[in-house]
Amino acid sequence: MIKIRREVCGYCGACVSVCPNGALELIDAFLTVDNDNCTNCGICAKICPLGALEIEDEKPL
Amino acid sequence: MKNHYDVLIVGGGPGGALAAKTVAENGLSVCIVEKRPAIGVPVRCAEGIGEDLLHEFLEVDPKWISAKMESAKIVSPDGSEIKLTPKMAGSEVGYVLDRKVFDRDLVRQAANAGAEVYVKARVSDAIIQDGIVKGARIEYMGDTADVTAEVVIAADGVESKFARWCGIDTTVPMREIETCAQYIMTDIDIDPHETVFYVGNNISPEGYAWIFPKGDRMANVGIGISGKMSGDGHRARDYLDKFVETTFPKGKKIELILGGVSTCRPLKCTVADGLIIIGDAARVSDPITGGGIYNAMYTGRLAGEVASECIKKKNCSRAALMKYDTMWRNSKMGRALERNYHLKELFITLDDKKLNAILNSVKSINMAKFNTMTLISELIKHNPKAMLIKELAALKKLID
Ligand SMILES: Cc1cc2nc3c(=O)[nH]c(=O)nc-3n(C[C@H](O)[C@H](O)[C@H](O)COP(=O)(O)OP(=O)(O)OC[C@H]3O[C@@H](n4cnc5c(N)ncnc54)[C@H](O)[C@@H]3O)c2cc1C
Predict the structure, then answer these.
(1) Which of B36, B100, B207, B344 has the most crowded Cβ, counting Cβ within 10 A?
(2) Are B196 and B216 part of one and the same domain?
(3) Among the atoms of ligand 1, which is closest to the Cα of residue B295?
(4) B222 lines ligand 1 (CB under 6 A)
(5) Which residue positions in chain A have pLDDT lower than 50?
(6) pLDDT tens digits for B356-373?
């Protein structure tokens, strides 16, 4: 599970571009994750310029 | 909004705007769908563009320009500086735009040429029939509309979801996303007509830091690092804060800008039946500089031309639209992308010692002769022989 910290997110879309499963989407200023498609790979959490994404249970990259 | 257009454009950035304007000038119906409520806002850019590059497309309007650059400076890890004047630096010298004004004006020009524009209208899916892209599903004012088109142009920027919905993998590899943070800073001591680039693995691993002036005592101050080098405690914003603390401890931050730039190769194919992909969505930003405004406008205009031609000939198949893909790949821009990809693959292997050595040796070269090729030959000279043979061979081929 990916947790989005909305108060940190700068809705820049960098995470959307690296998600191998297309599980992230930016709806205006609102980042959403489709947890059915998310594989917890952690790439989005790693590259976020602000640290707005957290993997809830699995090991980070 | 109608339910059919000749061309439907997903995204109202510089790429989408140029594509729309071109199609409208060809007398065809075209619509831009932009999910943000305001064109160009929030900005995700350092706003630098070469003077000749901008002039290639448009009559430059002074209100787009925040500042005019007369020189560029590269600061190596050991602190030594190389100064480049316009003739040497080529496209690295030019304008720092005000993209809030610029992007909106490009869309205004498209609208004035006849394009329809919808803002706060989000494309949420592709419409595909028998493997052919037929249009897009649009969320607008609480309603969902299916809009069809002869050609859809995906101009949706770094996110590049539309092509993905069409079955094309647009994922940027983790190591090839430059994750960026930037402040607009004011009350800082700068040369208002000089861009400054800092390289070094402590400052910005596999990337660079920049100061792009936006007038007296004001500048875009930013940093980009490879996604591979990012993580808790050492993210783009952390590097930026460190950089700003030492460079402009008294400066004030009046805007925070974030974003990702791809430094990967362009998509293997940028067309499909009924679809053209342009700009950042096609991954055509420059792997070395991260610059993508020109490339988006270039591919946008070309996409507009090829789409118009194909529609008039009533054939918008992948094979017909392929003309677009072939043309940009063989263009000066396409060749520069290929060359700069190899250059980037070399650049990221350099430790600070090598960066210092290269920059210092470039410095001693007759500056009148300085150009990208000089830099490349210096890179080749300083690169360990055993490594990257493939990259070097490819580079040599491109130079010859
Ligand atoms: C920090 C940073 C600094 C940069 N500095 C420079 C620089 O100095 N010089 C330079 O040349 N380039 C720079 N770039 C790159 C440059 O910003 C991009 O290459 C350029 O904006 C690409 O234009 P585009 O039209 O392809 O996409 P964009 O300008 O990103 O436009 C895409 C548009 O599509 C919209 N969109 C996305 N999805 C949808 C959807 N589903 N429905 C509707 N609309 C959608 C977006 O909201 C956006 O408005 C920088 C980038 C970053 C992140």
Answers:
(1) B207
(2) yes
(3) 19
(4) yes
(5) none
(6) 988 887 776 655 555 666
